[in-house]
Each structure stands twice: as C-alpha cells, then as structure tokens.
Write a structure and sequence with these properties.
233 residues, alpha/beta, 11 helices, 52% helix, globular, phosphoprotein, transcription regulation
Length: 233
Amino acid sequence: MSTNTPQDEQAAADRPIRVMVVDDHPMWRDAVARDLTESGFDVVATAGDGAQAVRRAKAVSPDVLVLDLNLPGMPGVQVCKELVGSHPGLRVLVLSASGEHADVLEAVKSGATGYLLKSASTQELTDAVRSTAAGDPVFTPGLAGLVLGEYRRLASDPAPVASDEPKAPQLTDRETEVLRLVAKGLSYKQIAERLVISHRTVQNHVQNTLGKLQLHNRVELVRYAIERGLDDV
C-alpha cells in the first residue's frame, strides 16, 4: 500500500519533469535540451555516447531519458536495457531518425516506453516526454499498431516454463483489473478515469504488480496479460 499523502502527490506533480538527453550529434543534442528547457522541463544532464549515458543517468536519476539509438561505444538499446533493468522507475523515450520496424521493436523489447521519430515537432516531443513520464506509451503515428502486434506475437509464442518455477503470486482484484486495462492498451490516465481513481494510484498498482510478478517493464507486463487472455475479457 502506498504511503504517499495528498501533499506528497501534489509536490511530485508540481516538480518539473527531470529529463536527460542522449545523442551523439552535439548540435541536435543541444537543440533538444534547449527546447525541453524552454518548455518547462528540468534537463539535468546530456550525454554523447552510450557509456557516458549510463554513468550520468545513474548519477542524476532523471524521470525520462530521451535516447537516440545510434550511439558510439554502446548502442542505445543496450543503454536502455541496462538502465531500465537497474532503475525500474526510469522511463525511456527513444528519439530516432530510424522508422525501421526492427529498430522500433528492439527498442520496445529493451524497455523503452515510447518511440518518436526525429521528424516530430517540438510540440510532439514535449507532449511525448510528458506522456512518457506518466508511464503512458507514446509512438509516432503508424508505429503503435506494430508494437501491439508484436505483443500479441510474443504472447502466442510464450517462453518455456521451468518445471520448478514457483506458483505465480496472487494479484488483488484491483491489480487484475488495472492489468486487464493495461493489456487493452489504455493509458494510465484513461485507466484512472474509468476506475475513478487517481493517476498515482494506477501507477502504484502497476508497480506493485510488476514487483509481484518479477517483471521489469510495461512490455513484459502486457505480454503476461495477453498470454493469460486478460485483454479479451
């Protein structure tokens, strides 16, 4: 159960979203950081290569990592996988020049919450960062259907279950209800409105469910739900 008070939630809501920008092109990196700062975000760090991104992100703990995939030294998907694995609360928005389906799917599998092409406008970028910070998936138009299709493909080919795997933990009725709506593709805001609860409460239920199921991100959570047919209920 969350111990957050209404005052805690209000303070968190009033605090600027902390963002880190990772791109190997200095002019592009600086322009994105400037645009986000001017839009009211707190840009806490930037980085120009993968190893530097991992070190700085661990030091400054941003809410959102705006991440290019094509980085020297360590590819963006590896940066994403390492940071999301060690910091489950971190959200990653990939901002890439590539719209190749393989790149999109690899980014999502590595733990990215969203994927935006660099052709996006400043308004689209700032909206995407806000959605990503809230835990809601955001994709350049045309890519969302691709990602949902991959969720379903993964669910139709589930990973083998070890014979000594412990019984799955029991979820509460409300956790199951939230999980079902996540699997249907609803955003946290839409789930909150449908269940008449706060956005923060939805996030807490999702985090509790991830912990119980020993999952790391929304991709794994949706796969778990689809494998059990919760998206069809």
